[in-house]
Structure formats: structure tokens, C-alpha cells
Amino acid sequence: MGLFDDVLRANQTLIKNEEALDYDFLPKKIPFREHEQEYLATSIKPLFNNRSGRNLLIFGAPGIGKSAATRSVLKELEEQTEEIVIIYINCWQHNSSFKIFVEICEQIGYKFTQNKKSQDIQKIIVKLLNDKSVVLTFDEIDKAEDVDFLYFLLENIYHKSIFLLTNYKSWLLNLDERIRSRLVPELVEFKQYNLIETRGILKERVDYAFFPDVWEKEPFELVVQKTFEIKDIRAGIFLLKESALLAEEKSHKKVSVEHVKLAIEKLDNFSIKSSTDLTEEELFILNLIKDNSGQKIGDLFKKYETMEGKLSYKSFQRKIAKLDEGKYIKITRKTGIGGNTTIVEKNNLN
């Protein structure tokens, strides 16, 4: 091997498909989510016979394929038939009932919503959606400021399936009983990927995104292990891309262990989850935990009270559970002489 054989030329790159390194990239098949996708498809099938399908609450930690698997099923449905209307709305982007009604109109091709009242828009939605069956998917449902739109859709749309996606199973507990009793959702849990699955997903992404031989076993395995430790596939995708960019900066044809280690250092200051996703009260509690990491939940609550926190202990516990579900923090339950103890620690990614 020559001294300069591993040097990239000016017109060379390690990445053949940069889109495959986006978090929203949708592979042809979502690996290791076949069972969940089959269940989603089964829930939709009654719509082919002009009957309502199942309503689902799809939940699990961030970065484990909920949105990707759901979008993949809907994409295949769209390719199969034009008789079923598909609505997919992110409630982070459209966070009120009025905004959601307007977005539904946009997606079904009705553009004349300007200056129209909410009731007028609702009448248009009923008229257009009740001509066919419809799948209504609301991603990040916990970001919606109100859920009146759910009551309206449940009451007025004939043949439908409603899919609600969230990181938090506990979201359902706070849903208005009028809506919950009409929705009657079945629960679909997306569990964490194991080590073998994590490796398989990242290997597939490498095949999509990079030219052959860019990734050798040792640096790739370092990415796999770090991703499994963090338990968020998006962190792994970040490491794949960042490592390759670092290699390109050095004009190297392969990603090395050193490139991955440098990317991991960047990951320590990189948060996939944004603190702006939290309410003011949740952010207040998160900052309290960061300042008092490793303490018992009871001691944290006492500090919370001294800082004029308004929540009851049970409500405080629910907020702690939500932060843990979202991986903003981590909790450890220990058993000792005095009974069970819950230790609350900050997550080093945040």
C-alpha cells in the first residue's frame, strides 16, 4: 500500500446517499418492527369494507421506530388503494384543534380555509371525509394544546381508524373521559431494540448511506455499542454521519475508531430531545434534578416544595415518570433495609 492511497481526492466522498442519514428517512422496510406493522395494518383492514377500524395508542421511548413504522404502513396503504383517505399530522407543528382542522383540509385538497370559522371548516371536513374511509394519524399527540378535535372526529366521521403516537403511555390517563370512552384505544407498545437489532438497523443504514468498505468492523461496532447504551437509534445515525464527516475532513477513505471517538465527544453535547418539548413545570423539575442528581425522589420533592413548587407528591411523581419515559432523566429503584427507594439522576445526554 502506498503512503497516500488512503487520501480522498477533491471530488471524492464517503457518503453516497446523505438522505439516508436523516432521522426522517424511510427505508423500504422497517427492520424488527414487522409484528407492530402487521398489527397496524390489521387495524386498518375493516376500512376496506366500509367499517371502522381500530383506534390505537402507539407508545414507546423516543428513537425506536414508532413514526417510521407507522408512516411505512400508511405509505403501503396509499400505494394499495385510493378509496381510503390518509391524514398524518404532527401535533408539535399543528398544536391546536383549529390548526389541525386547517391541516386536514390542506391534506384532502381543500385550500379555501382563510377567514373561515372553525365550525365552517368542520362542516367541510365532515362532507369530504364521509365520502370515503379514513385513517387519521396524530404524531406527538402529547404536544397538542387541546384535543377537542378528537371528540369532533369521533362523533362525526363514520368509517375511520385513529392512530395516536406518543412517547408517554401515561398521556392516556389525563385524556378527558368523554373522549376516552369514545376512542377506546388499543395499546401498541414499541419496546427498546436489543443489541442484535440495534446492530442490524445501523448496518442497514450503513448500506443505504455509504460507499462499500467505508466502515470496518471495529469503528462500526463502537457506534453500535454506544447506540445500544443510549437506546436511541437517532443517536447512532448521528454518530454514523458525524464520524464520516470527520473522516472526510482528514481526507481519509475509511472511518476509524478515532473518528468515532471524536463523534462520541460531540454526542455528549448533543441532545436529540429538546428541552423546549417540555412544559414550564416539567423544565423546572428537570433543572431541579440536574442540580441534585442522584438523590431520592422524596428528598427531591422536599427541595421542590421549598422552591415553592405547587404540585402534590403524586403529581410530582407523575412528572418524574414522564421525564424518565422521555429519557430526560433516569430513575433507579433500590431495595434496602428501610424498604424501596427511588433514585433520580440526570441523563448525561441532556
Structural class: alpha/beta
- Total of helices: 13
Supply Rg.
Answer: 23 Å
Q: Largest sheet at a glance?
A: 5 strands, parallel
- Under CATH at level 1, the class of the largest domain stands as Alpha Beta
Q: Write down the CATH topology of the largest domain.
A: Rossmann fold
Number of E strands = 8
Structure description:
With 350 residues, this protein is α/β, with parallel strands linked by helices. The chain has 3 domains: 34-189, P-loop containing nucleotide triphosphate hydrolases (Rossmann fold, 3-Layer(aba) Sandwich), CATH 3.40.50; 193-267, Helicase, Ruva Protein, domain 3; 275-346, Arc Repressor Mutant, subunit A, CATH 1.10.10.10. It is built from 13 helices and 8 strands. The chain has helices at residues 34-44, 66-80, 97-107, 118-129, 148-156, 177-183, 195-209, 217-230, 233-249, 257-267, 280-291, 297-306, 313-325, and strands at 56-59, 84-90, 133-139, 160-166, 186-189, 295-296, 329-336, 339-346. It has a 5-stranded parallel β-sheet, sandwiched between helices. A 3-stranded antiparallel β-sheet has the order 6-8-7. Strand 3, helix 5 and strand 4 (160-166) form a beta-alpha-beta unit. Helix 1 packs across helix 2, helix 5 crosses helix 6 (177-183) and helix 8 runs parallel beside helix 10 (257-267). The radius of gyration is 23 Å and the shape is globular. 32% of the residues are buried. The model has no long low-confidence stretch (mean pLDDT 89).
